[in-house]
Design goal:
Layout: E1 2-6, E2 9-16, E3 23-27, H1 38-44, E4 49-53, H2 70-83, E5 89-94, H3 96-107, E6 112-118, H4 127-140, H5 146-153, H6 156-161, H7 163-174, H8 178-190, H9 194-198, E7 204-209, H10 217-226, E8 231-235, H11 242-245, H12 247-260
Parallel strand pairs: 3-4, 3-5, 5-6, 6-7, 7-8
Antiparallel strand pairs: 1-2, 2-4
Helix pairs in contact: 1-12, 2-3, 4-8
């Protein structure tokens, strides 16, 4: 784990894999930290130089006073990549992380080689949903939301079979700083990237779990239809966080996509 100051925010991050390999950066959903990608990074087996980071207000990253829209989160990521000397990268973002990826590709097209958009869309949920969530967290904190959020994060089989792990992920959620969670809810409430995302011309893979509730397959398929030439895939039985439920399947999709787009060399078989 390392830390980087980007203007007024301190971001925690981790790098793995050979620095000479193509860079793949992961951007997280609401209420999580970068450990959700551990299984995917392991399954990729060192074919990429990976960068995982906690967006502001999550994990060990700070949340300076004031609002931060999606464009601000994208600027944080651009600043981190600049500090690390990364000039070109593949970006894999999940949920709000996928919106950050879309915004980054729009704002910094020369930086983004390709997009992997998981369980996301140009806009997620009507504003009143996020206003209600903000009120709940302000009044009672995050812990009372855990059961509801976990039902939306994971498919039925995972919830039934991995109750021990559910407890751990509930702990992760409940320990997110409330101001960071609320600020990210506000960013989601206020964002609609439809116009800028429709102008993207970058290789794109759109992925979701077949049991994803917050961003169901029809919504992610419509995102794929918005970006010319993009590819759409579902992971059967997974919910909103396939990186946790099916890391090997998500890693295989990333690998295949990167090979098809000539982003990595095909291994000799």
């Amino acid at each position: 784990m390392e830390f980087a100051r980007i203007d007024n925010v301190v971001l925690s991050y981790r790098r793995d894999g050979p620095r000479a390999a193509p860079t793949l950066v992961f951007s997280n959903p609401l209420g999580t930290d970068y450990r959700i990608w551990d299984g995917v990074v392991d399954a990729l087996g060192g074919r990429f130089h990976t960068v995982r980071y906690d967006k502001r207000g999550h994990g060990l990253s700070s949340w300076p006073a004031g609002a931060c829209p999606i464009a601000g989160h994208a600027a944080d990521l651009a600043g981190l990549l600049n500090l690390l000397g990364i000039e070109r990268t593949i970006v894999c973002g999940l949920s709000i992380g996928g919106m950050i990826a879309q915004q980054l590709a729009s704002d910094r097209p020369g930086l983004v080689r390709a997009l992997i958009l998981c369980g996301t869309a140009p806009a997620i949920g009507p504003p009143e949903i996020w206003d209600a969530r903000i009120r709940q967290v302000r009044e009672a904190g995050l812990a009372p939301l855990a059961d509801t959020v976990l039902e939306r994060w994971f498919g039925a089989t995972y919830r039934r079979r991995r109750r021990d792990r559910l407890s751990g992920w509930a702990n992760m959620l409940s320990r997110v700083p409330p101001e960071g969670y609320i600020g990210s809810c506000a960013a989601l409430r206020d964002a609609d990237l439809s116009a800028s995302t429709a102008r993207l011309r970058v290789p794109t893979l759109c992925v979701c779990g077949s049991e994803d509730i917050p961003t169901p397959p029809h919504l992610v398929r419509s995102l794929a239809a918005l970006i010319p030439g993009s590819r759409f895939e579902t992971i059967e039985g997974a919910g909103h966080l396939p990186c946790i439920e099916a890391p090997g399947k998500l890693a295989a999709l990333i690998d295949d996509f990167a090979e098809e787009c000539n982003l990595v060399q095909r291994p000799i078989r």
